Amino acid sequence: xxxxxxxxxxxxDIVMTSEPTPTAxxxxxxxxxxxxxxxxxxxxxxIGNTLAGYLLFWGLYSLxxxxxxxxxxxxxxxxxxxxxxxxxxxxLVYRSEGRWWIEYLRFHLAHLGLFLAGLGALALLVERVGxxxxxxxxxxxxxxAASGYFIHTFFTFRPNKPSAHLxxxxxxxxxxxxx
Length: 179
Prior knowledge:
Structural class: mainly alpha
Low-confidence stretches: 8-16, 163-173
Number of helices: 8
Number of strands: 0
Largest sheet: none
Distance between the termini: 76 Å
């Protein structure tokens, strides 16, 4: 039985009969190299911004909800969190050198859409599903953060496209350079 098992399951025999081998040291993580990955920077900065925004919502909710509805607290939180998020995303994630005011408007426009979708989801989860507003807002923030990467990559901080005039001029120059 042992011999047939050796032929059918050779890896199992090696595991069961092998002498322990020294393991190689784990590879060193080069954190500076990882910081050059835009998606990773977005996740790290996004987690920080989302956590800060959520904590701000929690604090304002705790202070203001007897006097104000949770939706008003969400609006106040949104305005403060988006401005801080723009500064972090622009400088640390996308390292943009574009016109800041156009990017700022795009950023707010993108976040307005995300905010409205999030506010609708928040109301749905609280009013229809019966979740507590703090739990619902945590789930909403996660969905907004994931959607935000694609919106900011392809809309807010997208590189400027060369104008059609420049593309035509380049094509004409390349045509003259050919034999």
